[in-house]
Amino acid sequence: MIELLDQLEQAASEVRQFVVAYGDAVTMPARRRAGVDADGGRPSGHGISRPTETTALDGRRLALQAELHNGAAWLPYAVAATRGVSASMDRALALWEGESVDPLLQGDVLDHHHGSAEH
Q1: What are residue 32's phi and psi, to 5 degrees?
Q2: Confidence (pLDDT) at 56
Q3: d(CA 79, CA 68)
């Protein structure tokens, strides 16, 4: 179980690093390939220059923003699941030590997947 906790901590650290990098990336102009415009691969220097529009509509930036929103949508579930496991383990330890546990949380089997006692 300690190995799984180490993996969870490592994964959380990696996500934190991505969030910081994404925060910087979505506010900065995208990196360009030499001699190519960022808005579709046309040779640079042709047509009207619209740097703000090009920056805002860059597909790579939009992909980063989509992943940032995706992560923000899923992380609350990971937090809730982890807190649920912690709460279930805390209740089981309290019962083992002979402490009184809220009767609404007691059950025959503790459900570690949802962090609550089964009824």
Answers
A1: -110, 150
A2: 59
A3: 16
